[in-house]
Design brief:
By secondary structure, the protein is an alpha/beta fold. It has a single domain, classed as TIM Barrel, CATH 3.20.20.70. Helix content is 33%, strand content 19%. An eight-stranded parallel beta sheet has the order 1-8-7-6-5-4-3-2. Helix 5 runs parallel beside helix 6 and helix 6 packs parallel to helix 8. The longest helix is centred in the last third of the chain and has 18 residues. The two termini are 15 Å apart. Pathway: Carbohydrate degradation; pentose phosphate pathway; D-xylulose 5-phosphate from D-ribulose 5-phosphate (non-oxidative stage): step 1/1. Its EC number is 5.1.3.1. It catalyses: D-ribulose 5-phosphate = D-xylulose 5-phosphate.
Length: 224
Amino acid sequence: MSSPKCRIGPSVLNADLADLHQESQRMLDSGADYLHLDVMDGHFVPNLTFGHPVVKCLRNKIKDAFMETHMMVSNPDQWIEPMADAGVDQYTFHVESSPDVRSTCRKVREAGMKVGVALKPKTDVSVVKDYIDQADMVLIMTVEPGFGGQKFMTDMMPKVRWLRENYPTIDIEVDGGVGPSTIQQCAQAGANMIVSGTAVSKAPNPASVIKELRETVNKSLVSL
């Protein structure tokens, strides 16, 4: 496998969801590499966002963008086929919600999507040893999942560092409170897929923020 590349994926969680297409397109026009779509079921997390019908409508409007769904749901297996049908490229689910993570990974891959496994802050990073060979990416949550706009958890960086040291070619994503003030910590720890919500979507100039995030990560990737 080749070395990891920096990719910036804005979260549209705090965008105007009635204007999801325009907001998503605005992020892509500002230089985003992919779209990070937060799917919440009101059960695994206390919030509720949108499901596969909305994602499918978005895919019909935006044909080519790489779309990742971050599945904050209690039964990730239930939504694999609907999300594949909706045109999702990567299905990222929480290991805490799957009774058989390897099986879920396999089903995601068989449905034609890339596999992402996500870890909540209290989950020990070493659990990934059991299924890392099945995953394309590991998402380290840097806030408790469920709501946007939370404070970045610096104490999650050792998890990122451990992953990068042990699995140098894997994609490592960080999500939660990531922006210009925290990107340096993420980059130095070894994260290469950067989810940023309000720091990008609410910025007067999203393109300049995305550029800053990318430059910071690329500098660190060179030294890995």
